[in-house]
Specification:
By secondary structure, this protein is mainly α. The chain has 7 helices and no strands. The protein has one domain. Helix 2 crosses helix 4, helix 4 packs antiparallel against helix 5 and helix 5 packs antiparallel against helix 7.
Length: about 170
């Protein structure tokens, strides 16, 4: 059971890494480059790469804490702190992405916002269900969001990347 739990935890971490890679990063870099040099650019960089990245890093740290407290107790329901760390950590990470996107391109990623809300709402269930079931559920939800985004935004992401790398000077 420990191997299954660890594999599930690794799947969550891989999903979060995969969720980070996307057109959002390219569009944010382009928006930062095009911002007026000086105050506007400084404020955008400060907000995005300090405050908003803090949410993402805090989410990853909470997830790691939740996984640490969960492994070895996969058949038991989670206690309050590990439940919040596991589900709230992923939710906080997603909210950091939502805020980052809003800061740069002034749109809200509704699927990530919705998934964050669902994860917070699942915390009481994590106090009753086996930890392994919660790990599997979180995995399934994150990967479902990624598949949806890949299908929905796949061509636009690819186009944004092509444009971004076409604009870069060759070295």
């Amino acid at each position: 059971m420990v191997v299954t739990g660890a594999s599930s935890g690794f799947g969550e971490l891989a999903a979060l890494r995969f969720a980070r890679a996307g057109a959002r990063v390219v569009l944010a870099a382009r928006r930062l480059e095009r911002a007026a040099v000086g105050r506007e650019q400084n404020e955008m960089a400060r907000d995005s790469y300090s405050y908003l990245h803090f949410l993402m890093v805090a989410g990853i740290v909470l997830l790691a804490l939740g996984l640490k407290k969960t492994l070895g107790h996969e058949g038991d329901p989670l206690h309050a702190v590990p439940a919040f760390a596991l589900l709230g950590g992923v939710a906080l990470y997603l909210l950091g992405h939502v805020a980052f996107r809003y800061r740069h391109i002034h749109t809200i990623n509704r699927q990530r916002l919705l998934l964050a809300a669902v994860l917070f709402a699942l915390i009481p269930a994590a106090l009753e269900l086996p930890a392994l079931a919660i790990l599997a559920l979180v995995n399934a939800l994150i990967w479902a969001m990624i598949v949806y985004e890949t299908i929905s935004y796949g061509e636009r992401r690819a186009q944004a990347r092509r444009e971004h790398f076409a604009e870069q000077p060759s070295t």
